Amino acid sequence: MRNAIILVFTLSIFIGIDQFTKIYAFSKSTPEVIDSLGNRAVLVSEGKLFGMRLVTNTGMFSSLGEGTIPYGGVQTITSLIAILVILSALFSKNKIMVFGFSLIASGALGNIMDRYMLIDTNGGHYVRDWIYNPGHDKGTYNIADIEVVFGSPIAAIGLLIGMFKDSKEEKKTFESSENKKDFWATKNTETKQNKEIKKEKEIKNTEKIKNKEINKVNK
Predict the structure, then answer these.
(1) Which domain holds residue 147?
(2) What does residue 112 show for φ and ψ, rounded to 5 degrees?
(3) Is 92 within a domain?
(4) Which candidate, 105, 194, 114, places its Cα nearest to that of 150?
(5) How far is the C-alpha of 2 from the C-alpha of 77, rounded, in Å?
(6) How far apart are CA 5 and CA 2, in angstroms?
(7) Which UniProt keywords apply (predicted)?
(8) Is 132's pLDDT higher than 50?
(9) In whole angstroms, what is the distance from residue 100 CA to residue 172 CA?
C-alpha cells in the first residue's frame, strides 16, 4: 500500500511537470511551425547554461535515425519498460527504491503520452524536446528524460541500501541463532551436570543408608 501511494503521488507530480513544461515551451512557437517540425529545431532562446530549442522526434531510439524503428515498435518497447519499472516500484523493499523507479516510470510515461497524443502532418508520432545546453550541446531533451536519468541512480542507491540492510539483518539473525544455540547448549550442559550431581547425591545417600543398616546388624 505504501509503495502504491508513493508511486501514484510521484507519477502525478512529475508527469504533470513534464507535460506542463512541454506545453509552455512549445507555446513559444506557432502550431503551424511545430506541426511541420519533423526533426528540425526551432531556436527560442539561448543562454550560457540553458537554452530552449523546440525539437520533435520519436524520443527513444531517435538517435538511430528517423523511421529506423517504427512507432509501434518504439511505443511497445517503452511501454513494456514502463510496466516493468512500475512493478519494480510496487515490489521494492524501501522508499528510496520506490521513488527512484517511480521517477523513471514518470519519465517513460511522459514521453509515451507524447507519442500517443501527438501526430504531425506526415502522420508521424513524436515527442516534444526543448532543453539544451548551448555551451555543451549534446542534443535536446525534456523533463521526462531528466526524470529517467535521475531516477536510475536513485533506484540503484535504494537497491544498494536494501542489500546492505538485508545483509545486516541476516547477520543479526545468524548471531541471534548462534546465541540461542549457545544458550541451549549451556542449559543442556547445566542440566546434565545437575543430573549427575543429583545422581551422585542419591548414590551417597544410598551408601549412607546401607552403612547404617550394616552398623545396626553389627550391633
Answers:
(1) 1-164
(2) -60, -40
(3) yes
(4) 105
(5) 28
(6) 5
(7) Aspartyl protease, Cell membrane, Hydrolase, Membrane, Protease, Transmembrane, Transmembrane helix
(8) yes
(9) 28
In a domain, 206, yes or no: no
| Within a domain: 195 | no
Q: Which amino acid is at 3?
A: N
Higher pLDDT, 182 or 162: 162
Q: Provide, rounded to the nearest whole percent, the portion of the chain with pLDDT above 90.
A: 35
Q: 186-202: per-residue pLDDT in tens?
A: 767 767 777 777 777 77
Cell of 207: 551408601
What does the buried/exposed string (b/e) look like for 10-42 if buried means 16 or more CB atoms within 10 Å of the residue's CB?
bbeebbebbbebbeebbeebeeeebbebeeebb
Task: State how far the Cα of 53 lies from the Cα of 25, in Å rounded to an integer.
Answer: 9
The pTM (predicted TM-score) of the whole model is 0.71
pLDDT digits (tens, 9 = 90+) for 18-66: 999 999 998 877 766 766 665 567 777 777 788 888 888 776 655 545 5
Total of domains in the chain: 1
62 falls within a domain: yes
Nearest to 54 by CA among 62, 63, 43, 46: 43
